Amino acid sequence: MKTMGYGTFETLRRQNAVLKGTVELNSGIQLAAWYNNCDTVTVRSDHHTLSLYVADGYESYQKTPHGWKNGGGPDRFCLMPKGDESVWDIRGDLSFVHLYCTDAHLRRVGEEVGTAARRTSPCRKDLRQR
Question: Which regions of the chain does DSSP assign to beta strands (E)?
Fold first, then answer.
């Protein structure tokens, strides 16, 4: 399958971030493991990015309308929706993983979950027995 070319992935490759590993699923969804330190990163992409800090990140700051917010650390989760600008000041060690996906990926997953739920729902079986 052709690589999607996710903007946030490409932005990080041009920054100080070190790519530790990546895999693209058959669906086109991409996962990447990163390490970064002493970097300022600005992204605005045409896709969604789900980010999970896996180690460190205590000195990671996100720019907000009210100034810089520190909220980083292991097991912290962040969603960067498509079209939104996200600015980060990484002042210390940070290991994180990203999942990159599009609206189409999210719709497909939602449809698959909905279909599976309808097939296995006890309420659905009750309706068929009446």
Answer: 18-24, 30-36, 39-43, 48-56, 60-64, 67-70, 77-80, 86-90, 94-101
Q: How many separate domains does the chain show?
A: 1
The terminus-to-terminus CA distance of the chain in angstroms comes to 46
Residue 112 lies in a domain: no
Tens of pLDDT along 5-56? 899 999 999 999 999 999 999 889 999 999 999 999 999 999 999 999 999 9
**Residue 87 included in any domain:** yes
Tell me the chain's radius of gyration from C-alpha atoms. Answer: 18
**Range of the structural domain that residue 75 is part of:** 7-102
